[in-house]
Amino acid sequence: MSAGLATAFRRMPSLRRTLETLFVAGIGLVALAPIIAIGVMSFDTSTLSEPFRAGTAAWSALFADTANLRALGYTVVLAIRVPIGLFMALIAVWIIVRLDAPGARLFEYLFWFAYFLPGLPVLTGWILLLDPDYGLLNRLALATGLFSGAPFNIYSAGGIVWTHLAGQTVPVMVILLAPAMRMIDRAMDEAAVLAGAGAWHILRRVIVPLMVPALAVAGIAAGVKSFESFETEQILGAPADIFVYSNRIYYLLNQITPRLPEAMAMSTVLVLFLLAASLGYQRYARRRAVPPSLGDGPRSGGRPVYRAGVRWAGTAALAVYALVAIVLPFAMLIAGSFMRLYGFFDLPAPWTAAHWHKALFSVDFRTAATSTLLLALLCALPGTLIFAGIAWVLAGLRGWRQSLAETLVWLPWALPGIILGAGLVEIMLSVPVFGPLHGTFYPLIYALLLREMPLGVSMLRASFAQTGREMVDAARLTGAGSLRILARIVLPLNMPALMVVFLLIFTLVLRDISTIVLIAPPGVQTLSLLAFKHSLNGDFEAASVIGTVVALASLAVSALAFQMARRVGGWR
Amino acid sequence: MFLLRTFTFAALAIVAVSLFVPQSAAAQDWPAATTPAFEALLAEGRAEGEVVLFGDPLLAEDFSRAFERDTGIRVVFMSGTQNDKKLRFLRETEARAATFDVFFTAYEGLELARNGYLLPIAPSLLLPEVTDGANWREGALHYIDDTATYLPTPVQYVTGLFLVNTSVIDPARVQSWADLLAPDLQGRIISHDPRVVGAGEGIANYLAHVLGLEFVESLYRGQQVRLVTEYRQVTDSVARGTHAVGLGAQFRDIVKYRREGLTQIEVVTPTDHSGYLVGGGAVIAVPSSAPHPKAAMVFANWYLSQRGQKMHTGIYTLPSDRLDVTDGPWPEFIVPQAGVDYLNQYAEAWVRGTLGGIASRVQALMPR
Amino acid sequence: MSGAPILALRGVGRAFALGGERLHAVDAVDLDIPTGEFFTLLGPSGCGKTTLLRMIAGLERPDTGRIDICGLRVFDAGQGVDVAAASRGLGMVFQSCAVWPHMTVFENVAFALRTRPWRNRLRPAEIAARALAALEAVALGGIEQRRVSDLSGGQKQRLALARALVAEPKLILLDEPMSSLDAKLREHLRRELKALQQSLGLTFLLVTHDQGEALAMSHRVAVMRQGRIEQIGTPREIYRAPANAFVAEFIGNGTVVQSGIAAPVLYRPEDIGFSTTANPGEGWLPCQVLTADYSGSFTDLVVLAPGDVRYLVRVAGEQALPDGRYGFIRLDPAQAIRLR
What we know:
The complex is a heterotrimer. Chain A is mostly helical.
């Protein structure tokens, strides 16, 4: 589909080219600015109160310290969760979308819910379940008499991988893969079923090959992101002497005088990784000359393609997974929020509603809830539209401009929030033109959107590419301008993907602490900061309450969003 | 389009919220005694209208409201986690483009103070109750900087103590640091991880200073101390009896666990080296580029007065150095005892003199 | 059907890279279509007919050649002229209908009227009137507020037609508009389309692979193969006088007979006489009936005649067939179609 500026500037190819080149340059500026700042900072050897002095001290330190290399090694090992998660998510999405298993929609919501759950309280729940000394599941296992020692140890590589899988990796991938799999025509399954193929066979031979591009993008995205996660590794890894790459970055930032150049050098390495992965993927995508033929998606209202036995087996598998990986930790979270002391069941009166009362009926909660919601909407609504615009123009580009723009769009993905924020602060403070913007909302919104741009734009791009070409052609023939086609035809037809992108931005704002602290204007209080306040006070239980409330609120927002998407987009 | 409509709605709501400005009128009962110079400062501060405080979110509510009530100056609050706050503080101050007036800190500001990036606070302390040395422990308000000008630290409390579970070990057996090396304690000690910044690191550096690196090695490596990065796990594990001794536990956790009936956990002050003093992030710094410098100095006076210290220590459950702030909600074991010679980690001598030399060698000893 | 051509193509071509080779999807096509004509591009799938149609519409860019619509140059590869699709003043009906599922019937049709530039903007009442008129024209009046997802296949296709008509273009392009409909509906719509084309005096350019559709509806037909036009003519001309064996075999059925060095000839099945009467007379050849496919109004037979030639013969549906599966056929040389 040739789109974007195509309609308007057909007659003036050179003007069109120029505008396209300007667009690519603009994207480059937006995406690269903080990265360049970070790169430059990594070569700074000046001390406080000195101007910038170039040198490679930070880079030599990076390669000289064996701890860095070992951390890199652990990170790579722990990235095993990406292929595992990809596989689990693929199966889950397949059961939900293709098998149309009973209760499929409920399970899809459960994955969204798991994605919304607050990380730290859930992690504590897992510790309570899987601690080698007192974990409930370990005690249960020992009570059966089948084990001589505790079978689970959460303080291990396996423990780290599992908590990531259950809490983030699998849910995110389900969210990313589901729209892509929805686009595959149901006739594909029907034809294969009629040919006598079993469900598993169809998955392997028909569905997976069609999903390869989506799987590759999700894999690279999650792979790069796995280099940046830090909290779980810190809590679960330290007792086992496992330190990962981002632990090192945070260690450097944590010093009395943060060793910024070294942290920036380490982050630049992440950008280079992503660049390599992105170029590799583009090469692969180019070689794969023929895109998979995708239909108008599964038709609604038909009877299920697969046998009841297969579908119920799918439901059973999802139910077991959801019970272990989502319901169990959530139950712990809820229990914790009602306990005097999280995890101490044998106190004389272990239960109390005091934490809920304290967390919810305070002035700060209302203030924080309001400003968080506003900030989230302020980012997510225009952000979704901006990403859609970028994706729409990207779809109309050709040749080197397209591959360059696509690579540029991905680059911010590699940067941890705190590093991206630091780079941006650096720009605001050292480029005089931007000085007046420092301390306003603009850099904050820019930073938050930049963090979600890679995923948001590429999801929309993939979704747009699957919009029926003739639907767009028909609109172009009416003389509608590019913007109007985008607004009236393409966006409504892509509501599901738009909703997913909207929610991704929304939840990012709900969770973020670092970016907001680094560049928000004075006076912004968010729920994540409030939860942090409670944990500062040793009030871990109240922090769990906030986390739970945020998760439930997010779930409500997502349910509402999907309801709207269904109405507007005529989506099933 | 519904997206557009929702967006419009959100924009309207933001406008509506921003119109809501807290009303402030100065109260009459503060300060207890004043001076013309302070009244002039107060007038200038009020003319600036507001002060931007940058600290833990704990101070965003009652504490800030009390200041507004007493001075008629509005508080805008910024908060965040340790790292993020520190990074922003350092960068904005260094660039002389601060968006805040007062930063609550530990000793991050020392370098900035020496290089002229901070406003001197001492000359602007004008209230008699603040400047009168008789109101302060050891006869004067402490500063971190040797010049006693930039970084006042009105709170000092004791840390570096043992947490023991009396139902699994007799506390009499762990009275000194050397006792921790007893063979039967191998594998039974848990500590906040010295490999990340925090209390565990502070203890390790302290031990390296007072007992030497060999001791650090025989304790952490030889006794196979369990290292955890989540503070609460130290208290939790000792309370359950999984470990007998805990190092680097947060005293707030200890108080909370004991309050809920887990009285088997007890704090032991080691007899040979009785811990060290820290300031609990109660230090304040005012950047040279503060947008409301006069209001910031009014705040400094208020904060260091009895009223401000009562509010602050009440929220943090930390003992104030002010002698007229007593009987707060803090536990007895963190209050510095007269006559005990504590190592003061919130002092330029420690930060610039000792710490740099020790820290990297301690890190090198730790398993990685 | 008269006047200057509404559409003129000269040397229009388009090639795709396929692996290392270049595949000529459309190869230097020349074509003139006069105003008011119902013209059909007919060919097997992959012959380039849809690509040609999309290039005329401006949805794809030719590599070579030029295109005139209503006497205006809309594309010229040499001069760099390329008028945007929307400015070429034509309507199009797509194979997949491509009606917008998130809009009502009315909104689908009114969309084109609402996109006009500001100074030519229509008043809402006028938009409504014209949209309803277009819907009436395709017999969709009265259901304009329905959602598209509630329409049947035939209704969707008519809606697509109404959408193409509403801007009152002079030239309508139809890309296999009936391929997804059932046979009965297709026949019905065929007649409606033809009637509509005549009553509105529009020019229709239809793309199809269905020769029955092409013959039944068109004033003229162009048969395409591998990006080239093999023959242009009236349905009768291409049926009765196909330019070559490809056209002959693609248009209708028949039996090609090669006799000696002369050019091969084609016999249409309905042109071959068949009789069960024993030795009916001069020129009749005995034959063996191999298969008989009954289709109601006629029956198609495959017979084996002397010389081991198989002929396709069409007889009236009610004609009696031989008991012993033997009969006689007669080949009339006057009916033989000489192929080049």
